[in-house]
Recover the amino acids of this structure.
């Protein structure tokens, strides 16, 4: 009975989303105040229905209701309760429902926090969000209904894909999707501003905290996915330039550009069209990512069930949304006029370069992601594009970006008076270079020509971004949360640059064959293989190996990687064992029984790889701090004139 | 030309130049770093130029997996049911590697026609069938043959995000 209730709730949610979209857009357009006021109740109803549907599906998973096809395909009575809950978003239909749920929650949050915005504007934002909700609900109901019944019910389910039976799955998709979906809010604000014809600085300021929060979630989500792939999949890496990774990375790059461009629009009233286009682009890339993942057009590790009708639906929806938004832009473009100018060395110029470089980076990633598709369509042969393409092209735009950042944060708005800062910049660069070269050649050996360059640029960001805040703090001046957050986020980027440079330069990877009792030397570590023992889990059995790790005779860790054979799907997975010592990240994955008592083992040493994930966390914290700045809070207090001037701030 | 205009011109020219250079370099990187995919029939026909590294895809022939006991070196045969290519690899095989299932390997041909793999890929779709392999089999044998190969027909696992 409950699955039918869930299905019914989804249908109601679809109807309510249609109402939400209609009232939100038509109400202000025809000046019908009663319609405008009806948006919030429609949204509330939609959200309640979506939550009901999710609860019904969760209930089916918890209660092992194998008459529901989606549950039967992705769960099993032997599956632990925790994974029965997270299996909800373990495959296509459920993850789509998660997407819809998060969109509803974002919409509700916007409705709650927008009470001080002009009612028409707030209604339009919610109306556009309603259109997005409607599209995804229709997609779910038409092509991917999670409540389809099986007749007769299966006695037991097919189990969740073993590699998804991991705590990483519990957190990675929800956080990633929260970020993805969050860009729908920026998109909705941009569309509302265009519908309203109100393209002053106000909409940018209202959008900023939402965009920053969505960006922070996306940052965390991508890092969690990378960490999960590293320790659970054990392929030996934290980033593979896989199409699905790229699908989440492109919106992140454009989202980062948007966060910066919004700052210029908000503070200086410049880059207005560019900001609008970026808001549209960021969400379009989120949707394109969904299309690429769900339609199965690209070869990827994240293989959802490929179904051409799904791909077609998203493609049409994508075209309608982007086409609609761009037509809106074309219609309103004459209203866009920037009065202010700026000098070449002014902060605006640096932010412009930041935007151009980030968009170039996103474009090169997009080109590499779509190339196999295009080559196939044009019958040029089946090709694949991998790290040899992505790594250098990405670095090409990132190196100038990081260098310009250190200079740019010292530039003033409007006027290019960098001469005053010449000494500071030069001194910090020299200090960074000394430390960077020291790190490259003193601590590690070997490396690449670009290693000292990368380390120096990373350290330069650290020093350069701390100069001003420390100076202000010492002089007893206050620091706004926006500045503190920005500084933290930039330090996060510096951490990422240092971590990536180090790990890319000094990784050691080796496959070795070992007999029990044998010792091998990998990098600066000695590994002693103690042998394997059988292991038994709730829904799998397998073997676990024991390795004693020492470094110059001093014990470091005992590592126990496992090889698990899952009963239901008969799939084998490797549980890697990882130790973190002295910034080095030693990973062991058990390979195959080679016969004669020997086992193959994959050994990887990745120095400072943890910094890459830590960097994402730091950036996200920076985003959260910046989004909590008081100047955005001002919008919360009900004021009669919502666009009251906000005092300018450096 | 007013100073403002000149500044703007410099800015715009700078950006155009930057984008142009980036585009040229990206295109260059493309040409040098794209890896082609071939199936055993294409290899037999000699479509692969000597010394070129490429991706070989097909099914692992039943009973072809052999290793020197205690060593990392493995040998197996990749087939598309028309032609076969022997493969040599030294290292840990991916978890999903098995006889009778699809496989994609990266490497190059040695003088004797053996494919020396430097990487064997575990990336797979839900039927344990790399999509390129599925497509190649479909091309050679029609729909039916591609359907009979999944190693675990009862289970259709799905990967999450």
């Amino acid at each position: 009975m409950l699955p039918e209730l869930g299905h019914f709730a989804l249908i109601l949610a679809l109807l309510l989303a249609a109402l939400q979209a209609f009232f939100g857009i038509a109400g202000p357009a025809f000046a019908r105040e009663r319609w405008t006021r009806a948006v919030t109740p429609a949204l509330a109803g939609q959200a309640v229905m979506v939550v009901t549907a999710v609860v019904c599906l969760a209930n089916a998973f918890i209660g092992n209701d194998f008459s529901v096809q989606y549950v039967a395909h992705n769960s099993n009575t032997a599956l632990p309760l925790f994974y029965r809950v997270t299996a909800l978003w373990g495959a296509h239909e459920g993850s789509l429902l998660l997407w819809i749920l998060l969109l509803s929650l974002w919409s509700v949050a916007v409705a709650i926090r927008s009470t001080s915005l002009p009612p028409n504007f707030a209604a339009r934002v919610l109306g556009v969000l309603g259109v997005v909700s409607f599209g995804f609900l229709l997609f779910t109901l038409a092509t991917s209904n999670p409540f389809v019944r099986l007749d007769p019910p299966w006695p037991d389910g097919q189990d969740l894909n073993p590699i998804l039976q991991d705590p990483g799955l519990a957190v990675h998709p929800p956080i990633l999707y929260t970020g993805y979906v969050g860009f729908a809010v920026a998109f909705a604000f941009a569309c509302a501003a265009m519908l309203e014809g109100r393209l002053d600085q106000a909409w940018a300021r209202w959008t900023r905290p939402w965009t920053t929060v969505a960006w922070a979630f996306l940052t965390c989500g991508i890092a969690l996915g990378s960490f999960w792939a590293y320790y659970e999949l054990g392929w030996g890496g934290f980033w593979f330039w896989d199409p699905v990774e790229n699908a989440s990375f492109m919106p992140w790059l454009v989202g980062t550009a948007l966060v910066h461009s919004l700052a210029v629009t908000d503070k200086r009233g410049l880059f207005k069209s560019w900001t609008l286009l970026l808001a549209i682009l960021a969400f379009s890339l989120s949707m394109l990512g969904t299309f690429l993942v769900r339609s199965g057009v690209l070869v990827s590790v994240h293989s959802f069930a490929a179904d051409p009708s799904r791909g077609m639906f998203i493609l049409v929806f994508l075209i309608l949304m982007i086409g609609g938004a761009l037509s809106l832009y074309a219609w309103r473009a004459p209203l866009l006029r920037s009065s202010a100018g700026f000098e070449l060395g002014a902060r605006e110029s640096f932010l412009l370069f930041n935007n151009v470089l980030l968009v170039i980076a996103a474009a090169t990633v997009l080109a590499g992601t779509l190339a196999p598709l295009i080559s196939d369509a044009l019958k040029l042969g089946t090709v694949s594009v991998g790290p040899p393409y992505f790594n250098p092209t990405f670095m090409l735009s990132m190196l100038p970006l990081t260098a310009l950042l250190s200079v740019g944060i010292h530039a003033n708005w409007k006027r290019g008076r960098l001469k005053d800062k010449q000494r500071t910049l030069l001194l910090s660069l020299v200090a960074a270079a000394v430390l960077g070269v020291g790190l490259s050649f003193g601590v590690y050996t070997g490396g690449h020509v670009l290693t000292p360059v990368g380390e120096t640029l990373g350290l330069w960001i650290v020093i350069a971004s701390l100069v001003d805040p420390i100076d202000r703090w010492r002089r007893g001046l206050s620091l706004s949360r926006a500045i503190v957050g920005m500084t933290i986020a930039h330090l996060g980027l510096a951490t990422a640059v240092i971590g990536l440079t180090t790990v890319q330069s000094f990784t050691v990877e080796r496959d070795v064959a070992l007999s029990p009792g044998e010792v091998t030397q990998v990098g600066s570590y000695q590994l002693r293989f103690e042998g394997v023992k059988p292991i038994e889990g709730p829904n799998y059995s397998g073997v676990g190996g024991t390795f004693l790790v020492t470094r110059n005779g001093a014990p470091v860790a005992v590592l126990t990687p496992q090889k698990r054979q899952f009963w239901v799907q008969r799939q084998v997975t490797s549980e890697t064992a990882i130790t973190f010592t002295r910034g080095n990240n030693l990973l062991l994955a058990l390979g195959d029984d080679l016969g004669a008592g020997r086992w193959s083992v994959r050994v990887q040493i990745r120095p400072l790889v943890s910094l890459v994930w830590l960097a994402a966390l730091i950036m996200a914290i920076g985003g959260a701090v910046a989004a909590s700045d008081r100047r955005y809070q001002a919008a919360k207090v009900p004021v009669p004139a919502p666009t009251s001037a906000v005092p300018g701030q450096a | 030309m007013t100073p403002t205009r000149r500044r703007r011109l410099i800015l715009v020219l700078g950006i155009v130049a930057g984008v142009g250079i980036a585009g040229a370099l990206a295109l260059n990187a493309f040409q040098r770093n794209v890896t082609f995919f071939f199936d055993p029939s294409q290899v037999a026909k000699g479509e692969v130029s000597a010394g070129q590294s490429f991706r070989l895809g097909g099914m692992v022939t039943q009973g072809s997996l052999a290793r020197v006991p205690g060593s990392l070196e493995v040998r197996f045969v990749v087939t598309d049911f028309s032609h076969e290519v022997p493969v040599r690899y030294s290292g840990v095989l991916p978890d999903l590697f098995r006889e009778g299932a699809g496989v994609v390997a990266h490497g190059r041909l040695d003088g004797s026609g053996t494919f020396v793999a430097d990487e064997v890929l575990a990336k797979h779709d839900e039927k344990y069938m790399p999509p390129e392999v599925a497509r190649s089999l479909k091309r050679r044998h029609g729909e039916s043959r591609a359907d009979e190969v999944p190693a675990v027909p009862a289970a259709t696992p799905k990967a999450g995000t």
Q: What stands out?
A: The beta strands of chain B are 34-38, 54-60, 66-67, 73-79, 84-90, 102-109, 115-121.
